[in-house]
């Protein structure tokens, strides 16, 4: 059996192939490519001498205040600045949110973000999974709840499918879970990347990141909006696990919020919608099936002629190919063996069309 490829394996191979002069389509890691509200170089030039002193470990006050306004306007949640905590990435934001449940039982989406399952192992959290694209999501999750279930993690728009439920479903789910005393963590990092009706966001704790919406993944800044729960306890977890996020990164992120103009988020949705449409229309015509990618920049696809997506991923990375393509086998997300994820966050429109062509050509030859 071939060694199973991870996202990082595929990314490293694509980097090597490009260095060797190959034509490569990067449809692997979930990275954005739209422009941030202000160029990072311009933001840095305006900052001057920074980083010489410690800042509050929960985050600089100005950023927390700006995020309180942003969350109300664009995510639809009302949270005071003192209940907003700056983490060292979106992943760290999730980590400190579930850290308080060590030794307890939780529910996570599968397929789902791979780092969820790394974190549960590190923290000794017992978990079960639920199908995040189930037709009856409320029944799906409630059917997995145990007497000792302490928390549920949601993630919509969903990685790796781009799916999110119709309006009202998550509100109903949250009310049911709240009645059972179960804490709800909403990993909402793709909150403003949607192509149909605006998603709804619910929970006792909502996590976010500057990586996806503001297109600065290298700054490593995440956010925890603590709607319910003890802020002192969460503050201790942020402090004890990272002692605060980079002050330089926080100040650049503050510049991003200050530069946010009307229409910016609609423009980024239009930017990714074009690529999504090229891929989804072309792949369906080629016989691929996948959940409707209503948001984020992912498609989780399968085809009746593809039995092993790990084998497919290796074929697409063969240096003998005219065009090498990096896709991710779904096992990384606890998906099915024949599924694979396409990330179109970094793709040009030309790359999106070429990816469809190459996949169609490959399945036609089988």
Do you know the CATH architecture of the largest domain? 3-Layer(aba) Sandwich
Tell me, what's the shape?
globular
What fold name stands as the CATH topology of the largest domain?
Aspartate Aminotransferase, domain 2
Supply the number of structural domains. 2
Rounded Rg? 20 Å
Mean pLDDT: 97
Physical arrangement of strands within the biggest beta sheet: 2-8-7-6-5-3-4
- Helix/strand/pairing class, anyone? alpha/beta
CATH homologous superfamily (4th level) name of the largest domain: Type I PLP-dependent aspartate aminotransferase-like (Major domain)
The helix/strand order is HEHHEHEHEHEHEEHEHHHEHEEEH
Q: Which CATH C-level class of the largest domain is it?
A: Alpha Beta
What does it look like?
With 366 residues, the protein is α/β, with parallel strands linked by helices. The protein has 2 domains: 7-35 and 264-364, Alpha-Beta Complex (Aspartate Aminotransferase, domain 1), CATH 3.90.1150; 41-258, Aspartate Aminotransferase, domain 2. 40% of the residues lie in helices and 14% in strands. It is built from 13 helices and 12 strands. It has helices spanning 7-19, 40-47, 61-75, 90-98, 114-123, 137-142, 169-179, 210-213, 231-242, 247-259, 264-285, 309-316, 349-364, and strands at 23-26, 84-87, 105-109, 126-130, 149-154, 183-187, 205-209, 222-226, 298-301, 323-326, 328-329, 340-343. The strands form 3 sheets. The protein has a 7-stranded mixed sheet with strand order 2-8-7-6-5-3-4, sandwiched between helices. Strand 3, helix 5 and strand 4 form a beta-alpha-beta unit. Helix 11 runs parallel beside helix 13 (349-364). The longest helix has 22 residues, at 264-285. The model has no long low-confidence stretch (mean pLDDT 97).
